[in-house]
Structure formats: C-alpha cells, structure tokens
Amino acid sequence: MKKKFLLLPLILSLVLLVGCGIELTSKLKLNTNFTGTRTMSCSIRISDLQSTFDGNADDLEKIIKDACPSSLSYTKKKTNKTYTYTFYLNFTSKSDYKKKLDALLNFSPKLTYQYSSSPFVHGIRYEENFTSKDLMAWLFTAFYEKGYVDKEHSDDLWNLKKTSFYFDGNEYSTDNKISVNTLAYEKIDSIHVQTTQKENHTYKRTIDFNIPETTLEQHRSAIDSYFKNIKGTTLNWTSNDTGKTLHISFSADSFTDLCAITRKVLHSNVSFGKSSLNEKKESPFSYQEAFDEQLDFTNFTDKSGNVSSTYSVTANQKTKELLQSTNAKPEVTFTCKNQIIVKSYDITSIYKNKENLQVIYQFQLADNYSKKELNKIISRFAGNTFSFVTSKKSKNSATIIFKQSGTVENCNADLKSVFSNCSIDYQSRNSIFKGKQSNLTFNFSLLGNNNKILGKFQLISISPEDTKSVSMNSKKYKKEQKSKNVIHKEFANYISANDTVQSIDSYSLSSDVFKADYIGNTTADHWIHILRFIFPLGILIILCFFIYKKQTLILEYIEKLKDIITKKME
After folding, report:
1. Does the pLDDT at position 166 exceed 70?
2. pLDDT above 60 (res 2)
3. Is 7 helix (H, G, I), strand (E, B) or coil?
4. Which of 249, 291, 492, 556 could bridge across to 206 with cysteines, CB 3.0–4.6 Å?
5. CB of 21 closer than 8 Å to CB of 159
C-alpha cells in the first residue's frame, strides 16, 4: 500500500509536467505477404522518476509485467537518461493481425489493404482506424484500476511523437493513424475468359487482355515481363480496334489444375476453382459436373476498383456466355452434362437356379478417364449384390469389371438402381406333362439406346435342368457356336468344382438394348418321378383285374384244395 501511494505522485507528475509523460514512438513493418511486426516504444526519463520518487522503478515494472497482453512481447532498456519499454506485436497474416488487434483495442479495428505490382495497378494502399496510443490503452487501464491515474489525465499520459510505416523495406510518410495510398492505374479495356471442356474431359482456357494503345506505348515491355515464364502457358498478340489483345492459353487435366494456372496468370492468391460430380439416374455413365470459380482481377482494375470482364464456357460443342461483370472478384458457377463413352461391353451370366445367379459386367471405355471419374462410376455399382472386380488401363482406354451375385430377386433390385431401364426376372410354373418350367429373362438397356455400340452377351448354364433353351431379341445380333465345355478361363473361377457346365449360349450384338430368355424344365425327371408311382400301381391294377376276371376258376381251385386238405386230415 505504501508503494501505491508513493507511485501515485510519480504518475501525476508525469501527466502534469509540460514535456513530461510517456513518450511513445511506433513503427509498423509490413511485407507483401502481410507478415510483419508492429513496434511500440515507451520512454520515461529517469529525471522525472527521480524528481518524484526516491528509488527505482520496480513498481512500474511490476505493473507492466502483470498487465502486458499475451499478444505482445517486450524488452526493457535503461540508459543514463531514460527507461525504455519496447513492445512487439508480430503477425503472420492479415487475419492473425486483425485477431490480435481485436484483443488489444476497445473497439473494432478496420484495415484497408491493397497491393499490386502489375503494370496496370501498382503501389500500396494501407489504412487503419486506430493509433498506437489506442493499442497501449491496456497500460492506462492498469494504472487506472490500481488507482494511479484518473480518466481526466488519460490523454496526457501519452505523448505519441512519431508513427512510421514501412512496406516491403520502403518507408512511407503517414499520420499517427496510418493512411498511405500510392496506387497508380493504367487503363485496360476488358478481360475475357474462355473455358473449353474437351471430349477427353481435359480443359483448355484462353484469357484475353484487351489493352489500349495508350497503355501499350508506356508499358509494353513491363506487360511482356509480367506474363512471361508462367509454366504451361503460351502468349500471342493480335490487333484490335483500340490497341492489341494479349491471348494467354493453357491446358490442364482437371478443372482444379486449370484454376491453379489461372491464379498464376492473374498474379492472385485468392482466385480458386473447384468441381463436383453429380450422377444422373438413367445410367452410371451419365453425370452432371458442377463448377464453381472465384476470379480475382484486382491487379487490373481502374481507380474505382472495377474492370470489365466476360466469361464463357464451351462444352459438348456448345458455347455459352455466363458472365458480364465489372466486379474485381466475380464468381462463376455452371454445370455440364457429361457422358462417359463406352466403347464396348461384355455381359456373362452364370445361372444355376433362382437362388444362385452370377453376372459379370465388363465395360470398355473410349478414353483413359481420370481417377475421379472412374471412382464416380464405381461408386454407382453400390448394391449388396455388386462387387468391384478390377479396372484395366491402357494408353487410350480403360476397362472396368463388376460382379453381381445373389438371388435373382436381389440382383434385379440392385441392377435397377444402377440402370433404371434394365431388369432380371424369374418365373416358374408346373405342368402335368412337362413338370416344373423356369423362365429367366434379361432385359438390358444400358447406354441410352445406342445402336452402334458393339457388345456381347453370354449365358452359361450350370442348372441341373435336363432341357433348356435360350432366345435372343435385339435389332442386330449373331449367335456364336460353342461347345458346352469351352469356357473362357476368366469365368471358370466363378464356377464351383461341384458344378457342371450344361450349356453356353453366346451372342454378338450391335446394340445396347436386348432381351434374352432362358427356358428350362425338368420333363425327364418329372416322368421318372411319375413312373416310379404309376408302375407299381399299374401292376396292382392288372393283378386285381386278373383276379376279377378269373374269380370262378380261382374259387373252383380253392374248393378242390379244401377237399384235398380235408381228406388228408381224416
């Protein structure tokens, strides 16, 4: 308590004496990536301390140590004339800086920052709505809360002598509230972005900068230097009505990579783009791709922050203009319906009974599609009866193979969820003369009624039914002749050693729409079963009939036998 009353005269003396108090100097060093350090130095003359307090400044040191915010670090230096406390605010980004300012200030900080080194916009604009004196309010609060100073003398406590601002190593003159604006602008007529989705689902983009003659006369060399040496791009100049157009073209395998190159061309850190695939219900090979791109033209704006720009997209051989804007950061969203081209297909069914059906699907794609697109197809075959077998890639194509196994009912349900126009149906009926008859029907419409695609359908029967037949219904097909024992080793793995191949029916097709009917019955087994019952019954009937017809004769023999037995007993 004694020290508290001793320090009170010290503070009051500092704020009442002309030329006394805490001298504050501030320096902000900012880099182009918005990292930097704000330094605030508070100097107190030793003579001021000694005139009011016979001793050291331990109490002042304790107040500073206890109250200093965690976002600040500080050092203490003593000379023959002064005590100097230097506070450091380090930051790694604009958001980091603003977060720390929020913690220090008693109001919301506002920052305006724009920097560009392009030939069209060059210079720095930086503004703050606070001073370093505001950032040191926490120290006054500590004095006030401990009773060392009152509100009336808060402004007199500080003597903010100088605020310095350095950007990228260069010093700029400013007031205590930093306000620097050296931006200069050169005219650019417009920017056009043309994006093309190629048939192989890669991308090409051309960005056209329409530059007037007046700008080219003064900055042609700087413009060439600004855009050269960007990896993957080609530059070309053509003339237009007001000057020249610089065409910058580049290609990429994915939309994300395309936007990454765009970011380099625009010399931006905030331009980005992304895409997502949304499947279509009619086929796993049809999908809709959604695109979202944020462009950043801040290095090409006029003084008001505007720039004329257009954006167009070419997909499926159709071009559409999506944007006409003066916004420096326009956002573009669009969708493209895409079809993964299937070159050929091969479907093999292995049938035993309605509880045991296997179908192997092979699709050869017309191009070597991206992993993202292939995974999207694979994810569509998601039913419990489906399993992904493998994918095979070559230079210009890819083959994906799926297996389906389970009951006919379950296979049918899962197939419909992938191909809405396909089905596998099973029916059976009993006949007095033919026994049980089974009917397995495959209805396929795979790729949107494509009559030019080549395909193959093969039905391998391991059913124990004694008679069977297969019929095909399609616009154009040819039945291949095969021995029932000739089976490709690729499918032999799906047949158990206990099962016997009964028949192989194979068809070559020139359409993706066909209907295959399998009919099997158990006529022979049915008649064998009937004969096992009828034969003993027939013998019994014949025997009864014989007895009925010969009953008089039989009775006579019985009477004679009876007489013989009676005589022998006498």
Report:
1. yes
2. no
3. helix
4. 249
5. yes
